Fold:
Amino acid sequence: MPKLYLLLGGNLGNRTLYLQQARESINNKVGHVTQSSSIYETAAWGKTDQPNFLNQVLEVETDLLPEQVLQSINAIEQKLGRVRLEHWGSRVIDIDILFMMMWWCRPSA
Structure:
């Protein structure tokens, strides 16, 4: 089954709760979360005059195609209250695709 690696992050509101809600939504709508990293607090970069972020990486087994994964994680962000006001700005949740391993099978001749 294809593996997907996602980076979760947020720096507004109850950051731990938003990460938990994102993990649960990903497990329900994208695929089975097989592993998760520890949660790390990191300083903002790009636009540094904002609160620190909490971040976590997830390994997910999914049957979705990359385009479906992107649509699903964007819907999860929106459901959790993500508002895109400025590039690199503060946010309650951000879900980034880090890497996706796909296996394609060729039909046997």
